[in-house]
Amino acid sequence: MRIQSYDIIPALQPHVKSICTMECESGADRSYIRVLPDTCVELFLNYTSTPVAIINDELHKSSIFTFRMSRPMDIQMRKGEGVVAICFQPGMAYKFIQVPMDILSDTTTDLADVWGFMGPEIEDKMAGFSNNEMRVNLIQQYLFKALANVKDDLPIVDCLKQVQLSGGLIPVGKLVSNTGLSQRHLSRKFHEHVGLSPKEYLRVSRFIRSLNHLKRYPALSLTEVAYKSGYYDQAHFIRDYKDYTGATPRQLLQAEHIFY
Length: 260
Description:
This protein is of the alpha+beta class. The protein has 12 helices and 11 strands. It folds into 2 domains: 2-146, Jelly Rolls (Sandwich); 154-259, Arc Repressor Mutant, subunit A. It has a 6-stranded antiparallel sheet. A 5-stranded mixed sheet has the order 6-5-8-3-11, with no helix packed on it. Strand 5 (53-55) and strand 6 form a beta hairpin. Helix 4 packs antiparallel against helix 5 (132-146).
């Protein structure tokens, strides 16, 4: 698997977390990976005639959105496959789709079912280009145009920033008081923009924080990782790993096919 990252234009940086191309070389074996849940929506734009991937035993032939997952996703890349992969910032995919995220959570959906005729149009143009820089520039132009008539929902943007700055450790009550919204209203906004309740969003954010600690500080014990990540006890730490990865933290460290 060959992966190349690209710069994001300034206007899209608040909304797009990363852009890269992913190519599975023709002579390579199919690559099986397990992708762990996070708080983001991802778009995979196919520019080849090869199907995109087998995801949880289902073959996807064309470009797809993968919406916020609550469980790990098993992906098998296809020989000769090439995609531009866009990972949206938490809560920001809503601006490009304008469908409540809680309706789409835990789904993998064909691009044409979300963007209509624009999906095949983008695929056709990308297939005709000679290099990936042109393909990435094209999709950034489409995303930039989509922002023209969409305004920020300031309370949700502010909440997501607070969660990010706290590493997922800010209490729900603090988010409620900081926004001035009722807890019910804030929860409705989270479901619409992120696909999760504030409580579940904080839980996933804490889990992601712990994954980052596992990567950055391999010498730490699992107990220290749990503590630094904001877990009250080892039981909750292990439960989250089993729910979100299908493995214990120690098993995750030893697994070569799990992507995080």
